[in-house]
Design brief:
The structure holds 2 protein chains of 2 kinds. Chain A is mainly β. Helices cover about 0% and strands about 50% of the residues of chain A. Chain B is mainly β. Helix content of chain B is about 0%, strand content about 55%. The termini of chain B are far apart. The chains are: A mainly beta, B mainly beta. Chains A and B meet through β4 and β5 of A and β5 and β10 of B.
Chain lengths: ~110, ~110
């Protein structure tokens, strides 16, 4: 049972570089989301999706893009990395809008 | 902005103690409430959902007071393995798939 798989687990970027954080789930969940977690800030919602082809912005979407071409995958793209995007990123999926969220193990990103 | 407020702690308690965490939320339209547990440098995991009538799971009891917009978690007979950060989580209401997380309350259970 893989659940929610995030890659990579660790990444160091230089300012201005772009990259894609991968997220895949094998539970056939319609709902997926991306959060960032910073010290003293808790988890904040970046983008979310309620099904393939449907995405929407969360609380802190600036500097990030998402797409949802399949039910399984929900990649997060950093367009031009900035030091303010240094954070731990979590992907999550749920079987319903109000059900349990299952999280991936996180990606620790450092932008220098 | 919809808020979820928690006492950040840390709560340092001896094994066997009873400890209570509180949480308040600002969005009166919220319908779903949860407690998640997060171990150091790990992902959050669901501890329990919180229902209006209150619910219990072993040593853990969750209560919801909609009128006061207040959620609580009680842990009885604390174990060393209960040491973690406890996150209060609330939805945005109207079936919206947007969860708001509190900043968490850190618990350390001491031998």
């Amino acid at each position: 049972n893989a659940g929610v798989t995030q890659t990579p687990k660790f990444q160091v970027l230089k300012t201005g570089q772009s990259m894609t954080l991968q997220c895949a789930q094998d539970m056939n969940h319609e709902y997926m989301s991306w959060y960032r977690q910073d010290p003293g800030m808790g988890l904040r919602l970046i983008h979310y999706s309620v099904g393939a082809g449907i995405t929407d912005q969360g609380e802190v979407p600036n500097g990030y893009n998402v797409s949802r071409s399949t039910t399984e995958d929900f990649p997060l793209r950093l367009l031009s990395a900035a030091p303010s995007q240094t954070s731990v990123y979590f992907c999550a999926s749920s079987y319903s809008a109000t059900g349990e969220a299952f999280f991936g193990q996180g990606t620790r990103l450092t932008v220098v | 902005r919809k808020e979820v407020e928690q006492d950040p702690g840390p709560f340092n308690v001896p094994e066997g103690a009873t400890v209570a965490f509180n949480c308040t939320y600002s969005n009166s339209a919220s319908q779903s409430f949860f407690w998640y547990r997060q171990d150091c440098r790990k992902e959050p995991k669901l501890l329990m959902s919180v229902y209006s009538s209150g619910n219990e799971d072993g040593r853990f009891t969750a209560q919801l007071n909609r009128a006061s917009q207040y959620i609580s978690l009680l842990i009885r007979d604390s174990k060393l393995s209960d040491s973690a950060t406890y996150l209060c989580v609330v939805d945005s209401g109207a079936g919206s798939y947007q969860l708001t997380f509190g900043k968490g309350t850190k618990l350390s259970v001491i031998p």
